[in-house]
Amino acid sequence: MIKYSIKDLEKFSGIKAHTIRIWEQRYQLLTPKRTETNIRYYDEDQLKYLLNVTLLLEHGFRISQICAMTGAEFNAHLKEVAGKGLNSKEDNMLNAAVNELVLAMLELDEQRFEKIMSSSLLQRSFEEVLIKVIYPFLKRIGVMWRIGEVSTAQEHFIYQLIRQKIIVAIDSLIVRSKSSEKYLLFLPKSEFSDLLILLFTYILKNRGKQCIYLGADIPFKDLQQVAQITKPDVLFTFVKAPASKLDTQAYIYELSEKFGDKQILISGNPYFMEELEYPKNVLLILEANDLIEMLTD
């Protein structure tokens, strides 16, 4: 059984730990369990309940109302809110969408995933959904993954659903002139999670850039060979879970040296990547908006 601390609940729900404790004392919102050594923790059902509470809060319900509801009333209001789609204020709406995606992942619920994507796409372009909903959701998964609160099956389930959407969207884009800037996108050797690099591929192609997408687990020699043939202007890679800072730093230096005449973009875990050094021709991309700003300069 997965165990969550109150700080975990704060990270996943966006509700401060202090507020959760007040709600526990005043409304008996949650009842934390205790380990054999008397350490408080929460289970997955309590996390799901809290995420659903945030959805109702974001749609105008007061916490006193929510806590007074029977289980049947709570579920009925939840279904009503879901049926209305995303029609609250901008920030609340986006946060609600991210929370819905978290629930879809935890419950392995494809129908819920499709519903939130359809609702989001009714109000935004695909790129806006990627940047304002999917990207923040992936960052939240990153937090959950780092502390071991997402199973491999849950992560793979939601990643594949999102991946399919992005690939279809990339395929639907009109091929632009070959005179535009050319990007070579890839994952280094032993890197296999290509979801974010696919997201960046869509952003680039949507702005008329030529993109050559190699995929995951690309040996350095193969990368050099492809670069000689395709002659890209920019190389773009992503490091999700580096084995060590030394190995990643060495890889950055090697990229910079072997492709000295190229612009190199690299993205990855900001808590790790910000501590590294970057040569002049290497630029760290921490957020999707960093890439967009670079393209509009």
From TrEMBL:
<dbReference type="InterPro" id="IPR047057">
    <property type="entry name" value="MerR_fam"/>
</dbReference>
<dbReference type="InterPro" id="IPR003759">
    <property type="entry name" value="Cbl-bd_cap"/>
</dbReference>
<dbReference type="InterPro" id="IPR036594">
    <property type="entry name" value="Meth_synthase_dom"/>
</dbReference>
<dbReference type="Pfam" id="PF02607">
    <property type="entry name" value="B12-binding_2"/>
</dbReference>
<dbReference type="InterPro" id="IPR000551">
    <property type="entry name" value="MerR-type_HTH_dom"/>
</dbReference>
<feature type="domain" description="HTH merR-type">
    <location>
        <begin position="3"/>
        <end position="72"/>
    </location>
</feature>
<keyword id="KW-0678">Repressor</keyword>
<protein>
    <submittedName>
        <fullName>MerR family transcriptional regulator</fullName>
    </submittedName>
</protein>
<keyword id="KW-0805">Transcription regulation</keyword>
<keyword id="KW-0238">DNA-binding</keyword>
<keyword id="KW-0804">Transcription</keyword>
<dbReference type="InterPro" id="IPR009061">
    <property type="entry name" value="DNA-bd_dom_put_sf"/>
</dbReference>
<dbReference type="Pfam" id="PF13411">
    <property type="entry name" value="MerR_1"/>
</dbReference>
